[in-house]
Amino acid sequence: MGAYFSEIFRGLQSLAIGMGITFREFFKPVVTVSYPMETIKMSERYRGHTELVENEDGTPKCVACGMCQRACPSKSISLASKSVEYEVEVKGEIKTKKKKVLTKYNLNFTTCSLCGQCVESCNFGAIDFSKDYNLASSRKEDFHFDLLERLKERNS
Amino acid sequence: MSLTVLNAIIAVVIAIGFAALNAAYLVWAERRGAGRIQRRPGPNVNGPFGLLQPLADGCKLMTKQLVIPGGADKALFMVAPVLAMAPAIMSFVTIPFSNVVVAKSMDVGVLMIFAFASLGGMSILFAGWGSRNKYGVMASVRAVSQAISYEVPMLITVITIVMMTGSMNLHDLAVAQSGGFWHWNVIPSLSSPLMPVSFLIFFICSLAETNRAPFDLGEAESELVAGFHTEYGSMGFGLFFMGEYANIVIGASLITILFLGGWGCPFGLFPSVFWFLLKIYILIATFIWIRWTFPRTTIYGLLNLSWKILIPISLFNLLLTAGLLKVF
């Protein structure tokens, strides 16, 4: 008989404790982020798709060496370049030199697995992960990024 | 048209309006409350504070097609949702909201409400049986066994109250408690020292009677898909939903009238309909609070609670009160 009543009282007590917890939670602030209206800032380590890094003058840091293209296990990167002659002053005399300039940098994000091999392989720190995660679309073409174009848009 | 018929029609229209409005906005309140308890905002997009959400839900439910599954018992399938809603609305007719606001004061008001409340179990049985769905049948069997086992302690508690007051008229029951909270039935008196326990029993039973969590065994999603309304879509489901909330309002009103002094002010001042509404909404908030605190019980735990704890204690209370009423 004693066990019967003590069980009832202990049960009631535990119910009261539970009610107390939810009562306190009720008055705590809401932690939800109302997604489309507000977004959270992604952390430093977040890996989105890659993005070209720019110099101070707004041109891409990329020297079009193609290491990233080779490092990519999914063959998602395709880039093209052209040779440009430019003049530089070395020890008082002007010399013409050639360098490669990036003309196209396409990332096929549909096959990209976000492994980061391209960023690892780059010797010039010319590509980095973006923090962009609002990437929903019903069209495949929306995931063929022209990173050069995106860089220009960022700067404009 | 004679005045009495007109009177009755107006009463029923007001009852339906009150029940529907409450059902719609209690869903909103429930979802907002659940959100706050889980530290999310709940529906807040449609209108200010999401207040147009019930309207949107209603439009959505009403524009859906009512699918009757093949092999279902058509008559039972169609009648069940109506049967879920109708008793709830009928019960509103005899509930006194204040000294004057009552559609029809009946001498057997308590009896009538419990008679209609039993019909609620019938609608669940019809729904489960009529839809020819194994989950539906299982759920309705559970819900009916639950309804039966919780009506027993509930009615024993009501008998205790009726014995103390000497009336089955809800109006008289409330009037007997007028004048300050120390007259309320929930406060123990010499002739009824176990009244808080009775109140607790009645409260638990009304949770179980309205099929609310943690006693919503009839709607145990993890085992029974959606329970007895698995096959219902559109407004058929909507009526079940509204019936549940209308029943909650009835349950809260009954608790208020039987235990918390009806429309009386706690300090004996200005008894009015305002106090009645305040009390029932506090009780409903508690219902919502409980629902989002406790997990669902098992069917064994549920029936054990009724037959091994609630019924013996309420019977003991009945006998004790009967004896003490004789002494004092």
| Helical amount of chain A | 25-40%
Low-confidence regions of chain B: none
How many strands, what sense, and barrel or not for the largest sheet of chain A? 3 strands, antiparallel
Shape of chain A: elongated
Please give the radius of gyration of chain B in angstroms: 20 Å
In the CATH classification, which architecture of the domain at 50-155 in chain A applies? Answer: 2-Layer Sandwich
Shape of chain B: globular
Q: Average pLDDT value of chain B?
A: 82
Provide a quick synopsis of the model.
The complex is a heterodimer of chains A (156) and B (328). With 156 residues, chain A is an alpha+beta fold. Chain A has 4 helices and 5 strands.
How would you portray this structure in words?
The complex is a heterodimer of chains A (156) and B (328). Chain A has 156 residues and is an alpha+beta fold. Chain A has a domain at 50-155: Alpha-Beta Plaits (2-Layer Sandwich). Chain A has helices spanning 2-26, 67-71, 117-121, 147-155, and strands at 50-52, 77-90, 93-108, 127-129, 144-146. In chain A, strands 2-3-5 form a 3-stranded antiparallel β-sheet. In chain A, strands 1-4 form a two-stranded antiparallel sheet. Chain B is mostly helical and 328 residues long. Chain B is globular. The mean pLDDT of chain B is 82.
Topology:
The complex is a heterodimer of chains A (156) and B (328).
Chain A: H1 2-26, E1 50-52, H2 67-71, E2 77-90, E3 93-108, H3 117-121, E4 127-129, E5 144-146, H4 147-155
Antiparallel strand pairs in A: 1-4, 2-3, 3-5
Chain B: H1 3-37, H2 53-63, H3 74-94, H4 109-130, H5 134-165, H6 170-175, H7 195-209, H8 221-224, H9 234-259, H10 273-291, H11 299-327
